[in-house]
Amino acid sequence: MNAFKSGTVAIAGKPNAGKSTLMNALVGAELSIVTYKPQTTRRRVLGIRTAEDHQIVFLDTPGLIEPSYALQTAMMKTARESMEAAEAVVWMTDVSESGPDAFCVPALKGLNVPALAALNKIDKVAADALPPAVERLKGLGIFREVIPVSAAKGDGLDRLVQCLLGILPAGGPLYPEDSLSDEPERFFVSEIIRKQVLLRYREEIPYSCEVRIEAFEERPGRKDRIAAVVFTEHESQKGILIGRAGEALKAVGQASRREIEAFLGRPVYLELFVKVRPKWRRSPGSLREFGYT
Ligand SMILES: Nc1nc2c(ncn2[C@@H]2O[C@H](COP(=O)(O)OP(=O)(O)OP(=O)(O)O)[C@@H](O)[C@H]2O)c(=O)[nH]1
Ligand SMILES: [Mg+2]
Fold first, then answer.
1. pLDDT on residue 179
2. Are 159 and 22 members of one domain?
3. Which helix (H) or strand (E) holds 75?
4. Domain of residue 272, CATH code
5. Atom nearest to 23 CA in ligand 1
6. H helix or E strand, kind and range, residue 286
7. Residue 97: per-residue pLDDT
8. Dihedral (CA of 252, 62, 7, 167) sign
9. 89 closest CA partner among 151, 3, 163
């Protein structure tokens, strides 16, 4: 039998490429929120995959963009630091998107970490679109392998893991084998609420929101009580979040509670509040307070 292998692998790439979907599939749990909107992931999310012969610690990262405000600058720093801290990088690109290649060269240049390319969403394109896309990525000369995958359907993931095991060193597990993440329950709860905000509101509203858990009380004999605040930047956005007679926020709360209960495996009582925090995405103090810097 081969030696047990372990190490850290960052998953990086442009927004919406399917990075979080990939990490969830590799770990076997819905750890990182997924939506159809770009810039869903704002922080590094750690997911642990433990198998008979390996433990891989995946770091899901925010999609790489040219930042235009301080929150995005912090997100890009998180992504870059995760890539630098890893033993390997999976660079994810969406096969159905034209011209992602020009972007990965600068992002990966100077990075002293072996990189594999995962060409994602192969379920969306005709089979004959694949070989040219693979060749284009290979031609860049920066990837050890180019692996077509469908993170959503699970195709190609075994090969991806085998390629990673070819890079990772021999070594014992880094975390207990039943751990899935190092994040506290509070983090996942806040992300589930943020996902509902992303799904239920349009345009700038979801991007102006931050969710913070204010209270998480275990109450013997009663449901846990969770109180969360959705921060937004303007009074007008607050009004939209709450909706006529509070209906919109109520819907966010109900959908979030169902998902939180499924995640935690126990019933909870969820209270949501909306507060205005002007320009928090550009404020060093707010970004520090929310844990982005
Ligand atoms: N058809 C198809 N859709 C996929 C696949 N993988 C991901 N998606 C979809 O692509 C969208 C974005 O997926 P995410 O996993 O959130 O992408 P991401 O790269 O983490 O995005 P950011 O966090 O914004 O950087 C979602 O609607 C996914 O369901 C795939 O293999 N096939
Ligand atoms: Mg993501």
1. 97
2. yes
3. helix 70-85
4. 3.30.300.20
5. 15
6. helix 284-289
7. 83
8. positive
9. 163
Buried b (16+ CB within 10 A) or exposed e, 140-159: eebbebbbbbbbbeebbbee
**Closest-approaching ligand to the CA atom of 13:** 1
Structure tokens at 250: 């109520």
Residue-level pLDDT at 231: 98
Instruction: Report the 10 Å Cβ neighbour count for 53.
Output: 11
CB of 38 within 6 A of ligand 1: the answer is yes
The pTM is what? Answer: 0.97
Number of domains in the chain: 2
Token digits of residue 62: 């925010």
178 assigned to some structural domain: no
Tell me which residue range forms the domain holding 21. 5-165
Among 132, 165, 198, the domain boundary falls at 165
pLDDT digits (tens, 9 = 90+) for 97-139: 866 567 778 888 889 999 999 999 999 999 999 999 999 999 9
Same domain, 192 and 279: yes
What percent of the chain has a predicted confidence (pLDDT) above 90?
A: 94
> Same structural domain for residues 83 and 12?
yes
> Best substitution site from 11, 14, 16 to test ligand 1's pocket, by max atoms within 8 Å of Cβ?
16
Does residue 78's CB lie within 6 angstroms of at least one atom of ligand 1? Answer: no
| C-alpha of residue 57 to centroid of ligand 2, in Å | 16
Model confidence pLDDT, tens digit, residues 217-266: 999 999 999 999 999 999 999 999 999 999 999 999 999 999 999 999 99
- 130: domain CATH number is 3.40.50.300
Over residues 47-93, the pLDDT tens digits come to 999 999 999 999 999 999 999 999 999 999 999 999 999 999 999 99
